[in-house]
Specification:
Radius of gyration: 34 Å
Keywords: Cell membrane, Membrane, Transmembrane, Transmembrane helix
Subcellular location: Cell membrane
Helix content: 55-70%
Strand order of the largest sheet: 2-3-8-5-7-6
Largest sheet: 6 strands, mixed, barrel
Number of domains: 2
Order of helices and strands: HHEHEEHEHEHEEHEHEHEHHHHH
Family: Belongs to the ABC-4 integral membrane protein family.
Number of strands: 10
Shape: elongated
Pfam family, one: MacB_PCD
GO molecular function, one term: transmembrane transporter activity
Length: about 425
């Protein structure tokens, strides 16, 4: 029930102690402000991580070779392992039912690529038809390398948007001839990549053509796989771990590598990394909650201390109220009302300030692993609940103390 006299008392108490009330409100507002900003930052980290995993197909497993680190079957350590076409074909055949997309790679990190008077140093790769899908790239003009290109050793190339802009400017590149390390290739497509210029500064060509044109024989640098989708994350993780263990065993056996030499064959499993990133993000967000709530508690303690001072100042008044028949519940309600009002108003100011900051400044803060910090509606409701609870908690102990005051003692108070 609305009690205008109680509201008048609250505003009179605030008016008498403007500076004290203002400083108390600042401590509460800053606590809510810091909490919401930290939660928004945690969401920004999560958005950044999710964006990184969107840049490539889900569940990528990448395999490459290194040098051996252990002696095995009479072979010394330090032996460099060279992957070949057969190293790619064996796991493809063995795990055929598990694999959704696949590609071997033959990479030249810096190649001179030119068209007419324009030239530049770009990375070019021999790949299989699934490669662009694995990288989550998109053909915006023409087509990508296909099986017929590999079968016929066609000298064709799909170029990244950055390469197209550098070499062709505004001209149409389709069907034009580019020179890649001294060998002519016809442009059959232009692609974009969500990761940006780094991937768009590449040129992709048929694996068989690259091996033959540049004297690589049957050598490859590595291989990439995307496994079939599963019902849930745990199944995907188990499937990917089974696949990575299986391919390691196959390659170690074929290349005479010690079973316990884990350095000779490198494997990157994005499913495992996804779990690590999301676990890390969870820990960061829990830490942010902890810091924010501790800051709020500091503000609540300040409000509670102020309310204790107010109770002390109003001891005689409380005694008179009780002598006139005021119940302990009404005394507690009076103190809680003032405490919740101050805390909630200050908290709303902090909440509003933090939401405005995230709304206008947040989109300007963009980096590789931090994007669009924001707070969703559920978190805002949670924060609102924290405000009300904090106000009640701040006033409870002073209110309880006020309710225990004996009228005769209160009336003697100076």
């Amino acid at each position: 029930m609305f009690n205008i006299e109680r509201w008048q008392e609250i505003f009179e108490a605030i008016a008498k102690n403007k500076l004290r009330t203002f400083l108390t409100g600042i401590s509460v507002a800053s606590g809510i402000f810091i909490l919401v900003i930290l939660l928004g930052a945690g969401k920004g980290l999560q958005n950044g991580i999710e964006k990184q995993f969107e840049n490539d197909a889900e569940g990528i497993i990448e395999v490459w070779s290194n040098s051996t680190t252990k002696q095995y079957k009479g072979l010394n350590p330090g032996r460099e392992i060279q992957l070949r076409n057969s190293d790619y074909e064996i796991p493809v055949q063995k795990f055929e039912n598990q694999i959704d997309k696949k590609s071997a790679t033959n990479i030249t990190w810096g190649g001179l690529i030119s068209y007419g008077k324009e030239s530049g140093n770009y990375q070019f790769r021999g790949v299989n038809p699934d490669y662009l899908a694995i990288e989550n790239g998109t053909i915006i003009q023409g087509r990508f390398v296909n099986a017929k290109d590999l079968q016929n050793n066609e000298k064709v190339a799909a170029i990244g948007l950055k390469v197209k802009q550098d070499l062709f400017k505004d001209a149409d590149p389709m069907g034009k001839i580019i020179v890649v390390n001294g060998i002519n290739f016809k442009v059959i497509g232009v692609f974009t990549d969500p990761s940006g210029e780094r991937e768009e500064s590449r040129v992709y060509m048929p694996m068989t053509t690259v091996q033959r044109a540049y004297g690589a024989g049957d050598k490859i640098n590595g291989m990439m796989f995307v496994l079939n989708k599963t019902a849930n994350y745990e199944e995907a993780l188990a499937q990917s771990e089974n696949f990575t263990n299986g391919i390691k065993e196959l390659l170690k056996s074929k290349n005479i590598i010690a079973p316990d030499d884990d350095a000779a064959i490198g494997v990157y499993n994005s499913v495992e990394d996804a779990k690590q990133f999301y676990d890390l993000n969870l820990y960061i967000r829990l830490f942010f909650w902890w810091v924010g709530i501790c800051t709020i508690i500091a503000g609540v303690v300040g409000v509670s201390n102020i309310m204790l001072i107010i109770v002390k100042e109003r001891t005689k008044e409380i005694g008179i109220r009780k002598a006139l028949g005021a119940s302990p519940i009404s005394i507690i309600g009076m103190i809680l009302h003032e405490s919740i009002f101050i805390t909630t108003i200050a908290g709303f100011v902090g909440l509003l300030a933090s939401l405005l900051l995230l709304e206008f400044v947040g989109p300007m803060v963009q980096s590789e692993f931090f994007r669009n910090p924001e707070v969703d509606f559920g978190v805002a409701l949670t924060t609102l609940g924290i405000l009300v609870f904090a106000g009640g908690l701040a006033g409870f102990f002073p209110a309880y103390r006020a309710a225990k005051i004996k009228p005769i003692v209160a009336l003697r108070d100076e």
